[in-house]
Design a protein that fits this description.
The protein is mostly helical and 451 residues long. Helices cover 76% and strands 0% of the residues. The chain has a domain at 140-223 and 327-450. The chain crosses the membrane at residues 21-44, 50-67, 74-97, 122-148, 169-189, 195-214, 241-258, 264-285, 359-377, 397-417, 429-450.
């Protein structure tokens, strides 16, 4: 019999949060915290060594700040601090069910096989696909995309494919409402997704174009290993890819309209729309038995696979709350005073350093991002600069994910390609990460001067 405590507690945590929004009831926070604690404890034996050490260290540090009865209760309630963002993380992957069932990725493979004739085209198509499909399916899209491009023709260009996938995927951190990064800044800073999206999408295409131009300089032809798809097959593939794009745009439009009409936070709307649209969309492809099987697979495999990020995000919220309860806002102000940082344009580079350096030592970016968001969002010094803080945090998060050998993305692709995560992150993506951050910082400076 498969263990059910991990997926059950995870879904109950996210589900209780959503129910409490519409039907507030006493002790809702305590109940969400209880399910979060059960999830944290049940996942712990299955986690990798580094997350285990981080979770233990953060838990001990948070508890050590105040071991009184009130301190223990504050730590317990702090476990649900990130419940709104975790609801996105838990329920958005349901959208992968109809995407898989509709065979959309197989049609993307047809497009790849027809149009990719040179290495720069392979880079561009892989980047676009990782950024667009990954923006909805999250990290679950990466193994699929890797397998789709792992053909005899593309196999000699493994490093190129890895670079393209990583770079395309992290760019979704800037704009995708389905990503935990965007959810985090929306939860803590006084910004809306409609404010972030235009800037994020423009920066995404600018950075993507810069990467493509760099790869184009060393482009070479790719020998073919199989015949081109016939015209009918290609036409059908184009139709299905356009259909996929249309549905994703429709889902995003529904989220935007629902947020406007209901007045609910986008953090609440996104998981609800993901749940409903996943079911409705799946009805076009699945029988009742297939649908039941897909949801069972989601419960048995997909949710248990969330353990590392889910557990880190739960404990990061509790630790960040403990810091805030014990004067972290004053510590931040003291640090900024010591460094004479009174302007947000000076703070953004410091945010980069505070995220990159710990990440190189093994600290997950989720932890530092959460702590920075919790503490900086309450700082009166930057009360009018939340939009710029949001962009600074997102750009630093992207750069950190690219260069950290311990990020889940680099570890996943290292396992798939059987290469070192240090090679992938530091050797092949450090330069791109610096370019990406400089472009984002330049945009922040321009927007700040124009405000």
């Amino acid at each position: 019999m498969k263990p059910i405590l991990r997926p059950l507690s995870t879904l109950l945590m996210g589900g209780t949060y959503l129910v409490s929004i519409f039907f507030p009831f006493p002790y809702a926070s305590a109940l969400i915290s209880l399910f979060a604690l059960i999830a944290l404890v049940s996942f712990f034996p299955y986690l990798k060594r580094v997350p285990k050490v981080l979770i233990l260290a953060l838990a001990v540090a948070a508890l050590a700040m105040d071991i009184s009865k009130d301190g223990l209760y504050a730590f317990f309630i702090g476990l649900q601090t990130n419940a709104n963002v975790l609801a996105i993380f838990i329920f958005v992957p349901l959208l992968a069910i109809p995407i898989r069932q509709g065979n959309y990725l197989a049609y993307i493979e047809v497009i790849f096989s027809y149009y990719i004739k040179k290495t720069d085209q392979l880079y561009l198509f892989s980047t676009l696909t990782a950024g667009s499909i990954g923006g909805v399916m999250n990290i679950g899209s990466i193994p699929i995309l890797y397998q789709l491009t792992d053909t005899p023709s593309f196999e000699p260009y493994t490093i190129l494919r890895i670079k393209a996938m990583i770079r395309g995927f992290v760019l979704a951190f800037l704009w995708s409402p389905y990503f935990i990064s965007v959810g985090l800044v929306l939860a803590y800073f006084d910004v809306t997704w409609l404010q972030l999206f235009p800037v994020g999408i423009v920066l995404t295409f600018l950075i993507m174009a810069s990467g493509y131009l760099l790869e184009r300089k060393s482009s070479e032809p790719i020998p073919r290993d199989k015949p081109l798809p016939d015209p009918l097959e290609l036409h059908r593939a184009k139709q299905k890819v356009a259909e996929l794009a249309g549905v994703v745009v429709l889902i995003t439009a529904i989220i935007m309209i629902s947020e406007k009409m209901t007045g609910l936070s986008v953090l609440t709307v996104i998981p609800l729309v993901a749940i409903i649209m996943s079911f409705v969309w799946s009805l076009f492809f699945s029988t009742r038995q297939q649908l039941a099987h897909n949801y069972q697979a989601f419960f048995d495999a997909r949710v248990p696979g969330m353990g590392n990020e889910l557990s880190l995000f739960i404990i990061a919220g509790a630790f960040g709350t403990a810091l805030l309860n014990n004067g972290a806002d004053e510590w931040i102000v003291a640090l900024l005073d010591a460094l004479n940082i009174t302007n947000v344009l000076l703070l953004v580079p410091l945010m980069l350093a505070l995220m990159v350096i710990p990440a190189l030592l093994g600290l997950h970016p989720v932890i530092t991002a959460t702590i920075l968001a919790i503490t900086l969002s309450d700082s009166p010094l930057f009360a009018d600069d939340h939009f710029f803080l949001s962009l600074g945090l997102l750009s630093s998060w992207m750069a950190t994910t690219l260069v950290s050998p311990f990020s889940g993305l680099n570890l996943l692709l290292a396992a798939l390609s059987r290469r070192s995560p240090f090679e992938i992150s530091l050797k092949h993506n450090a330069g791109f990460a610096l370019m990406l951050w400089i472009i984002c910082y330049a945009a922040i400076v321009v927007l700040y001067l124009l405000k």
